[in-house]
Amino acid sequence: MCSEKNARGYNQSKRAQNQAKTRERIVEATIELHGEVGPAATTISMIADRAGVQRHTVYAHFPDDRSLLMACSGTTMARDPLPSPAEWAATNDPEVRLRMALGALYRWYERNAKLMGSVVRDSEVHPLTREVTELRAGAEMRAIAESVTGGLEQKGKAALALAMSFHTWRTLTQDSTLDTPEAVNLMTRAIISADD
Predict the structure, then answer these.
(1) What confidence tens digit (pLDDT) does each residue in 68-93 have?
(2) What's phi and psi for 21, nearest 5 deg?
(3) How much is the pTM?
(4) Contact status, residue 72 vs residue 27, Cβ threshold 8 Å
């Protein structure tokens, strides 16, 4: 009786481990595809093929696109969270704080450039991608902006919004020849001089 109960417990544990591994493969396949073709163009068939499972297996773990996007974005942000204002909170000099914030944000963009490029592009035309992006990153991005807006007036805040944009970072560092510190210097000067 005891060995039968132990065997049943072992089988349930093994099944749970297999399900967790399958779920992880599906999430990883989806993240890869989001970086390659974007969330809007990623299909369940593509995910199933990449993960080595059947379509119905994907649906068994993620009954709708929203649950899948939430799982993928959660995994991505857990691996590499957006910078926290706590990193520069102890700095009293507004310019130094601004440089630190932009530097941290730009390094995050650099580490996540491929995926972010696809997600930002699709957020403009794909409502679900826009919704999930706002849920996962909206509050954090607002916190970064609020942590460095002290003393900025309307034009300075507008320049800050421009500087924090992924498009701006990509234009400065990928489309031009600036490295991240040079891009940070340029944008810091632009923000500080905007209110003059």
Answers:
(1) 999 999 999 999 999 999 999 999 99
(2) -65, -40
(3) 0.89
(4) yes
